[in-house]
Amino acid sequence: MADPFRNTPPAPEDKGVMTAQNIAAAFAGESQASQKYLAFADVADSEGYPNVARLFRAVGYAESTHARNHLSVLGGIGATTENLKAAWGGETFEIDEMYPAYDAVAKLQENKSAQTSIRYALKAEMDHQGIYDSTLKDVKGKKDLEAKPVRVCPVCGHTVIGDAPDECPQCGTAGSYFKEF
Length: 181
Hints:
The longest helix is centred in the N-terminal third of the chain and has 30 residues, at 17-46. The chain has 3 domains: 17-73, Ferritin (Up-down Bundle); 78-143; 146-181, Single Sheet (Rubrerythrin, domain 2), CATH 2.20.28. It is mainly alpha-helical. It is built from 4 helices and 3 strands, in the order H-H-H-H-E-E-E.
């Protein structure tokens, strides 16, 4: 039986610039809360509090639901080809503008941890951009992504389709630790 609530987020409305700005800010906040709570869940798990971890994951899911609703209201969810183009564009902005600027400031302020975090993210964004580019070409040709696992390094975010490398080329993490999707 089909889920009656699937694909029924609030529809976009082009009414009110201030409301759109507020919804965009709420989208950012809910997205951040979702990720923060997932990180908190991992800590709770590692400290032996599995039920606290479960609570953080549940509330993280709720925050993610709020973020998706806000994104829908903003008109930010389209057909797969549109979504792939938007994702590619986001990766391109991060590669070409955002992370180089952030890295320059981190270098100026001699913040080595920030430089490492930025380097990891920048390299992973390049992975994502390439994957989105080839996937978009397939989807335009009415072809789905090949049914291979997508694997992600849990330290730096390096992303591959298919087998994980023996060792992450970005951070050296053993491929056996890559998360499979």
